[in-house]
């Protein structure tokens, strides 16, 4: 018996020894796997830069170039790309890609930045404030395209495993975006630039004063977009905006020059297939007022003239249009090194002009702001000083007192070039410039009976994969059709 006990004790000691040796080895192996040169914290600088680049690239994406640029009557694309210009509605795959690209690009990356800069291990309220500005711009474009969209649960599939996000109302999205911008402005006013992105800011090179102007100008854009949907919130937010610095000159413009690949995406649109030709609607407006931006926005044709194409032609009329020989997009907009814009000082001045009319009932002040907006737009495109002086002396550059809202609306439409998506949103909100109803037999009435489309549809994929949330949004918003207006489109 004693022998058996000794044997058992020996086995236990050996087993314990082996166990301790194993734990010791395991701990040692973990130490070996812990590479002292490995990155243990993700640097959000690269993610921030990528999110910003995606935001600017989005100004020439499918939704902007294939749809909004033609809906807003800036140009017409050839071949199969022309269908949206005919107000067609057979674009299910496009609608799906536009929604997915909106989230997989800027929003996805900036959501990661927001998470990293707000965690207890790596908090940075300055970077977080900058990220909120980019996030607002990303979400604003998605909601302006579709209406109700995922917002509180949007862009969080990877980090929070939300595969079927709920759809928030556009009203709630807009109200929250304004709050986010307001909070960011308050933080950045007194922030230490060293806490921002000293080597990773592709817009303002870490100039936080310019970031404040930028954020406040975006807030003004959102506030005026609410004018007909929530006048009280619009007016109170505008008052807030006017108490803080705004964009005033081209040096405040939010732009980026694409340096990778072939450069500016509008270059490939102009030189590739299918080609783009500028709209008669745009050319007529510029020519009728002797606007010096004509040579900026439009290239001369082979005969040295500016020749456009009418938007919405039927297939037969288009076949007789001499499309290939018409005017291309201007080189200033569509060269590899051309700037991409998300917000400009010119837009800001014209928003202020509209606000002066709408909320202050001050035509004289509105005229001063209106003229400033035109002048700054001309300077943005480096128009010759002599031409600027000449155009500013023309009747177009002064509010007539008769159709002031329309005058401001037309100049805003021009100043938004080449941010064509914002041009489409501007027309949807204000009704200016007036896009004619298509009643001619040479024009296609499409799926909207000749009325400019109001939104993009939720795709069949989204309806199938996230059905209950999408159906709930449709029940609030209205039929899933391209002529169903979004919440703020009340005019």
Automatic annotation (TrEMBL):
<dbReference type="Pfam" id="PF12771">
    <property type="entry name" value="SusD-like_2"/>
</dbReference>
<dbReference type="InterPro" id="IPR041662">
    <property type="entry name" value="SusD-like_2"/>
</dbReference>
<dbReference type="InterPro" id="IPR011990">
    <property type="entry name" value="TPR-like_helical_dom_sf"/>
</dbReference>
<protein>
    <submittedName>
        <fullName>Starch-binding associating with outer membrane</fullName>
    </submittedName>
</protein>
């Amino acid at each position: 018996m004693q022998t058996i006990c000794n044997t058992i004790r020996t086995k236990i000691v050996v087993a314990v020894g082996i166990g301790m040796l194993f734990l010791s080895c395991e701990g040692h192996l973990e130490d070996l796997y812990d590479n002292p040169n490995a990155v243990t914290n993700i640097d959000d600088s690269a993610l921030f830069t990528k999110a910003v680049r995606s935001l600017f690239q989005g100004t020439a994406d499918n939704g902007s170039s294939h749809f909004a640029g033609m809906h807003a009557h800036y140009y017409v694309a050839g071949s199969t790309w022309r269908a949206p210009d005919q107000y067609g509605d057979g674009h299910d795959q496009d609608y799906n890609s536009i929604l997915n690209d909106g989230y997989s690009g800027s929003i996805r990356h900036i959501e990661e930045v927001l998470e990293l800069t707000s965690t207890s291990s790596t908090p940075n309220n300055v970077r977080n404030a900058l990220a909120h500005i980019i996030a607002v711009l990303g979400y604003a474009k998605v909601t302006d395209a579709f209406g109700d969209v995922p917002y509180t649960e949007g862009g969080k599939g990877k980090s929070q495993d939300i595969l079927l996000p709920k759809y928030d109302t556009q009203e709630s999205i807009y109200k929250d975006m304004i709050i986010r911008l307001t909070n960011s402005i308050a933080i950045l006013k007194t922030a230490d630039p060293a806490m921002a992105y000293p080597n990773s800011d592709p817009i303002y090179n870490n100039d936080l004063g310019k970031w404040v102007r930028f954020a406040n100008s975006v807030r003004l854009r959102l506030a005026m977009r609410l004018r007909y949907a929530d006048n009280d919130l619009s007016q109170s937010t505008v008052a807030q905006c006017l108490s803080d610095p705004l964009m005033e000159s081209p040096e405040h413009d939010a732009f980026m020059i694409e340096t990778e690949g072939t450069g500016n995406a509008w270059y490939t649109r102009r030189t590739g297939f299918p080609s783009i030709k500028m709209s008669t609607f745009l050319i007529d407006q510029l020519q009728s007022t002797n606007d010096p931006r004509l040579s900026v926005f439009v290239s001369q044709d082979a005969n040295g003239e500016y020749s456009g194409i009418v938007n919405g032609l039927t297939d037969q009329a288009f076949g007789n249009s001499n499309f290939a020989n018409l005017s291309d997009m201007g080189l200033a907009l569509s060269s590899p090194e051309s700037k991409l814009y998300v917000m400009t000082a010119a837009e800001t001045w014209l928003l202020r002009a509209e606000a002066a009319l709408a909320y202050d009932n001050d035509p004289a002040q509105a005229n001063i702001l209106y003229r400033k907006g035109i002048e700054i737009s001309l300077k943005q495109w480096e128009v010759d000083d002599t031409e600027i002086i000449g155009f500013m002396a023309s009747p177009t550059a002064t509010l007539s007192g008769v159709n002031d809202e329309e005058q401001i609306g037309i100049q805003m439409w021009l100043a938004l070039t080449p941010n064509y998506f914002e041009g489409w949103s501007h027309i949807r909100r204000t009704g200016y410039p007036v896009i004619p109803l298509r009643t001619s037999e040479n024009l296609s009435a499409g799926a909207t009976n000749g009325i400019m489309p109001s939104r993009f549809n939720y795709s069949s994929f989204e309806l199938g994969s996230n059905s209950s949330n999408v159906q709930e949004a449709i029940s609030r918003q209205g039929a899933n059709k391209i002529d169903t207006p979004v919440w703020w489109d009340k005019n």
